[in-house]
Amino acid sequence: MTLILLVGMLAIDATHFTETGVYQPLRLSEALVSEDGSLYVLAFPEATIRFYGPDGTLRKTIGGKGEGPGEFIYPDQMWVQDRQLYVFDVNNGQISLFDEKGKFVKRWSAPNRGLELIKVRSGWVYGTWQNFGEAVEKNELVWADETFETVTTLCTVADVGNDQGFSVTNNGTESIGVYNPIRTRPRIVPSTDGTRIYLTDVHDLKIQVIDLDQKKIVQTIQHKVKRIPFDEDWAEAKFKENTEGRHSASTKWTKIYPEQFPAIRSLTLAPDGNLIVDRWRGKPDDTNWFLTLTPKGEVVKKEWNGERLKRQVGVHGEFAYVTYWDTEAEEAAVARVPRGKVDAWIAAHPVEYDGPTGRTMSFDH
């Protein structure tokens, strides 16, 4: 479906991908653009993936709640490679493969359920510390082939920080909660061609560059920056906001508050191959303090639209795919917009949403 929108005196053609089944704003990881311009949208609560053609037509709904072939419980990550869709179910640690028409092909097991997998041309990259918080013998970044039969250590990671969020467990006699207000885990970002990995430090502005052909660190990018003291007042306010009336008053909480914010908040790969580092300002709700680096680590003066980085999920030809919130339908959607008009389109379509966000998962260990 195509709709003509007026932004000032500028008419922008936008193809819309609607009826996604997602009732909170989409994360970047929940929408993927394939090599032919088709689009996949992950609806986590119902464990389905909407498969759209480039014209916005819904071709197929993939998956559904269950444990049978082509079904999921918690489909947490997805990737497109050679027009094939890979989906990782964090509930059972299995990867399902679908062909270019959305037909189920096969599935196989990853090493464990808690992985944050990175799909690369030659297989997978992941951290061994990604194991639902359970201690491992050694924290390593590793490469594995497609089926995880061959695994090679890329580097050892001294400090792996913590995941953001709330977790509550019950040992039979009491509820124990852990609260970490910010993510301090390393960021793992692949290069556009999938031949290199960028691994961030959990403290300093330091990025290790790993060559996947050589299977080793080939460069270290590092810049001195002043670390900012952590804002405990903000963390306490967020804790109260997210626990009041939602958790038992008898829950015993451990709060993980670092002394300082990490230097690196997030790492994004720009379309031109440069690295975009978002840094902590000291006020966690104040984002978009960007530093742009070349692949060699040189600082480049460049301005970025923070909203575009949050909402542009991919490009195909002369078009970019941008998430938005359909206020009338109260549902997330995606628009395909001419690349040169994305900023104007985003400005005309701010995300106005004040409902709940995040995902809730329950596991039996």
Fold and architecture overview:
The chain is mainly beta and 365 residues long. It contains 3 helices and 28 strands. The strands form 7 sheets. The chain has a 5-stranded antiparallel beta sheet with strand order 1-2-28-27-26. Strands 3-4-5-6 form a 4-stranded antiparallel beta sheet, with no helix packed on it. The chain starts with a strand and ends in a 17-residue tail after the last helix. Residues 1-10 have low confidence and may be disordered.
Descriptive key words:
four-stranded antiparallel sheet; 7% helix; 365 residues; five-stranded antiparallel sheet; mainly beta
Radius of gyration: 21 Å
Structural class call reads mainly beta
Helix content: under 10%
Strand % is 35-45%
Number of strands: 28
Low-confidence stretches: 1-10
| Separation, N- and C-terminal Cα atoms | 45 Å
Mean pLDDT: 91
* Major pleated sheet: 5 strands, antiparallel
How would you describe the shape? Answer: globular
Number of helices: 3
Spatial strand order of the main sheet: 1-2-28-27-26
Pfam family, one: DUF5128
Protein name: 6-bladed beta-propeller
Organism: Sulfidibacter corallicola
InterPro entries: 6-blade_b-propeller_TolB-like
